[in-house]
Amino acid sequence: MLLAAWACSNDEVAVSQLAQSFHGAMVEQEHVQIVYSDSGLAKIRVVAGLMEDYSEDAEVPRQVFRQGFRVSILDARGLETGYLKADKAVRRMSDQVWVLTGDVQVLQDGGNALYTSAMEWDRLKQEFRSESEVRILDKGEEVQGKGFVAREDLSQYTIFAVSGHFEGDENNLE
Asked: Does the residue 172 lie in any domain?
């Protein structure tokens, strides 16, 4: 009688090389809804048709959201106080900056709104910024320009190359 034993083993070098050669998303999920919280309070709710998670990427850890990206900005009671949407969003894991592209819209309670083709959303600083063209609706007035920095709630903003018409007290304009 002949008895043969086969053992299974992994070549650590081969496994390491295989892991380093993979550059795709570690996770892909459809119809995503994610709630981000801080100190037990929900701050934002993200909805997207597709999320690709590259958080294990050593060079550029990130999450990519596509197909109907929308973020609800929530108050302390969990109620929506505004929202933003874009065709695509990339959340950089290194600095918590979201890069939004394609038909970017921000709408806040009270009617203030921002429209642009691309911008960065710095969650830590709670501000939006871009060098793209922008259109902002502020208390019924429209201001346009190119390049901007704005507070997340659109209560303050600076447009670098302003165009358009703004009614009001000219001594009170920034």
From this structure: no
Torsion of CA 99, 161, 112, 103, to 10 degrees: -40
As given in the structure block, the two tokens for residue 156 are 């303050």
Residue numbers of the domain that contains 71: 23-126
- Tens digits of residue pLDDT in 33-84: 999 888 888 889 999 999 999 988 888 899 999 998 999 999 888 899 999 9
CA neighbours closer than 13 Å in the CB half-sphere of residue 108: 18
Residue 98 sits in a domain of what CATH number?
Answer: 2.60.450.10
End-to-end CA distance of the chain: 94
Decide the pairing of beta strands 62-74 and 41-53: antiparallel
Cα–chain-centroid distance for residue 110? 22
